[in-house]
Design brief:
- This protein is α+β, with helices and mostly antiparallel strands and 113 residues long.
- The protein has one domain: HIT-like (HIT family, subunit A), CATH 3.30.428.
- It is built from two helices and five strands, in the order αβββαββ.
- The chain has helices at 4-9, 57-73; strands at 17-20, 24-28, 36-42, 81-84, 100-104.
- It has a five-stranded antiparallel β-sheet with strand order 1-2-3-5-4, covered by helices on one side.
- It is globular, with a radius of gyration of 14 Å.
- Bound molecules: adenosine monophosphate and zinc ion (ZN).
């Protein structure tokens, strides 16, 4: 299967990498929606959050922990930021590989349109 984010996590397609370990990869979004906008993904291909079950709980916890730690590293700890997971068509997910968006560096609007 040819998946853009699998290829990015494997280093086969270039990205502005922020962090990597055995299970996770984080990189700046190519089309940032705020001064800081990066993505945290599992190296394992999971299409979206609806595909997850209890066996993925540990990996999902690591993704959230990683997103939070990197947000602090990127200077978002004091003022905060938004952690977003778009899911399937109504959620406007465009890349079918699970990812957490981390958006910050400006006051964001709510609710989403
Ligand atoms: P989503 O709409 O939640 O599926 O988000 C996909 C995100 O991936 C969008 O914010 C895109 O800007 C971002 N994106 C797409 N291609 C790349 C790429 N090659 N490198 C980094 N980010 C990308
Ligand atoms: Zn993938």
């Amino acid at each position: 299967m040819d998946c853009l984010f699998c290829n990015i996590a494997a280093g086969k397609i270039a990205s502005r990498k922020i962090y990597e370990d055995e299970e996770l990869f984080a990189f700046h979004d190519i089309n940032p929606q705020s001064p800081v906008h990066f993505l945290v993904i599992p190296k394992k291909h999971i299409a979206n959050l609806m595909e997850c079950n209890a066996e993925d709980a540990s990996l999902l916890g690591k993704m959230l922990d990683c997103a939070q730690r990197l947000a602090v590293q990127q200077g978002l700890g004091e003022r905060g930021c938004r952690f977003v997971i778009n899911c399937k068509s109504d959620g406007l997910q465009t890349i079918d590989h699970l990812h957490i968006h981390v958006l910050g560096g400006r006051k964001l609007k709510w609710p989403p349109g």
